[in-house]
Amino acid sequence: LQSNDCCVGTNFSEENMEPGEESMIKTTESSYLASPNLPDFHSCNPGWSSAFYGADCFGSEVHSYVKNLGKQKSSESQNIDAKKVELEQLLMMETKNYRKTIKFYQKLVQKERRNKGPEIKSMLPKLRGQLQEMKSKVQFLELVKKYIMYAEQWGVESCVLPTVVHSSRADTLDVAPTDEPSLLVYHNTPKHNCNNQNGIRDLQAGTPLGLMAYLYSRNAFLEGYVQQFLYTFRYFCTQEEFLQFLLERISSTLSSASLEPSTSFTKICNRSFYILQAWIEDCYSVDFATNTDLLYTLKEFISSKVAPLNGYGERLLSLLQDASARKSDSTYHCSGMDKCEEEGEEDRKSLHSLCKKLSEDVSRKVCHIFRLWHIQHVFHTLFSLSDMHAHTKKTVQYLDPSSEVFHKCHPVHFLNSRALGVKDKCVAVQKAISTEAVSLKVCNLFLSKCVQDQYLLQLLRNADSISTWVAAEIVTCHTSKMQVSLLSKFLLIAKSCYEQRNFATAMQILTGLENLIVRQLPAWKILPAKVAEIMEELKAVEVFLKSDSLCLMEGERFKTHPTIPSAHVLAMHVQQLETGGFTMTNGAHKWTKLRNIAKVVSQVHAFQENPYTFAPDFKLQSYLKQRINRFKDADIAALAADNCANFHQIPAEKQSRKIQDTLRRMKATFQ
């Protein structure tokens, strides 16, 4: 299977274009014009693409465009502030035109729906083409904007990095460049990208102090190092140690930072603010929200040390307040789904009461038939295949209660999963971490000092529940015909899921169908051949997902189509990268290993950028959730034992012939 062929998504159309365009528009409205001596008040978070692509995030076209920016209007073409001003004007103009074109397009779509005239029909395809071109232009300018932001003047040359390490002592600043090989280990490489123009050195390893100091390197943002560091620093230092490092650099340089922009004081101070803001923006939920002492230390330092001397302090305090509010909303928000679950529970109780009343009035058999009718009616509604387009849209919302949990996940949640009890083959989610896991070298420091949220474990539990539910529903069907029907529907749903790039649900259904008891059911032998082929397709998709940790990031589909990966498969890929030592013989931590881990987990944020936009049906979701909860801990073997449809039956005629043959043989012996 090829990554571009196995996943079929929706085509570009009026219906699925508008929400994506509007959300993209919002990202282009930020402004980053600010004082030349202070960091700009825009987002400093490099984003997943920086960690994934590294130095290749910016192509040759971007470098060429930035180099030529401003040459037509000013002789000071190399002045970064002049480039910012011109780029901001271009971006505002292109965004304004793009927004106007979208509104015009939406009006045409509405007219076309009311009156399908030939003129409007012919205009829509051309306008869509123009929109794609304009969108590409705006996205390109956004990339140029990010490049200029990362190429700002606050970084230092690598030979000055030892100064950063010792900058907590004011008397060591602005000394001549020195070299400390013990801090960082480099590897000489040929020229391979636009940012490494001299082709000199590639970072291979470093001590914790050295790796933290490299954040101040001039090209740390451009190389993707900052985002990769934010994903993986917990392997070699705690959040408290990292925060202390940043605060010490700010304390020793803040009072002198406003004197001269070119001094090491200003560069180290402002880069410290950049890194601190990027850390808060990207990792507040996993580092600060779970560690009240860390959050208090940061707030106290900003309020007492930074705010009185520097306007950036107010920005950081506001940023922390906003991040805290978002975390609270995601934790305590009561969605419509929760309300409908309560309604669904009431419906279930009403049904139970009705069945109880019926059982008192009529035989238990009638009550049993009524219950089966109700379940079959709901399943017919859920899995009706008469309208495949509508069925495809229903698949995600009905069969993926983990989708919401996945979108709350952070890449950090997929690190160190072995210590949480996540294993290959069967997922053993332990309630308490065993002493054996604690002793593992890979997670010794990470485990003992860094608190991990339970999002990954929740995803894996949900996946197990759905797989068990799939198996339970099949083995409790009371006839082979019903089993064939349900097997067919589950297989078709799984196919729809992976075609929509919902690999999580597809693999959960596959696991349920591969249950040892389910695979032995007689119903498989009478399953239509075309439907049975889907099982082989699903197995091929599973092999495809396990073959390469980055297979879903190939091509362009992941940028334009929603994707939900299999949490267990992704966790296994990360565990494979975590296998082996993290340090070299000299004690330096292997940055190449950490960088590869960061690249793999960055997929989580990449896939979260394109959520599914189907309108949910809360009542049906609620009922399905009740069914899953009912069977999540079921013993499939015990359920199957109570159902004669799960066993191979000898046909009556064949049985009769056997008896007659036996009687004949017995009669012959007595003659």
TrEMBL record:
<dbReference type="Pfam" id="PF00618">
    <property type="entry name" value="RasGEF_N"/>
</dbReference>
<dbReference type="InterPro" id="IPR000651">
    <property type="entry name" value="Ras-like_Gua-exchang_fac_N"/>
</dbReference>
<keyword id="KW-0344">Guanine-nucleotide releasing factor</keyword>
<dbReference type="GO" id="GO:0030425">
    <property type="term" value="C:dendrite"/>
</dbReference>
<dbReference type="Pfam" id="PF00617">
    <property type="entry name" value="RasGEF"/>
</dbReference>
<feature type="domain" description="Ras-GEF">
    <location>
        <begin position="418"/>
        <end position="641"/>
    </location>
</feature>
<dbReference type="GO" id="GO:0005085">
    <property type="term" value="F:guanyl-nucleotide exchange factor activity"/>
</dbReference>
<dbReference type="InterPro" id="IPR029899">
    <property type="entry name" value="KNDC1"/>
</dbReference>
<dbReference type="InterPro" id="IPR023578">
    <property type="entry name" value="Ras_GEF_dom_sf"/>
</dbReference>
<dbReference type="GO" id="GO:0032045">
    <property type="term" value="C:guanyl-nucleotide exchange factor complex"/>
</dbReference>
<protein>
    <submittedName>
        <fullName>KNDC1 protein</fullName>
    </submittedName>
</protein>
<feature type="domain" description="N-terminal Ras-GEF">
    <location>
        <begin position="199"/>
        <end position="324"/>
    </location>
</feature>
<dbReference type="GO" id="GO:0007264">
    <property type="term" value="P:small GTPase-mediated signal transduction"/>
</dbReference>
<dbReference type="GO" id="GO:0048814">
    <property type="term" value="P:regulation of dendrite morphogenesis"/>
</dbReference>
<dbReference type="GO" id="GO:0043025">
    <property type="term" value="C:neuronal cell body"/>
</dbReference>
<dbReference type="InterPro" id="IPR001895">
    <property type="entry name" value="RASGEF_cat_dom"/>
</dbReference>
<dbReference type="InterPro" id="IPR036964">
    <property type="entry name" value="RASGEF_cat_dom_sf"/>
</dbReference>
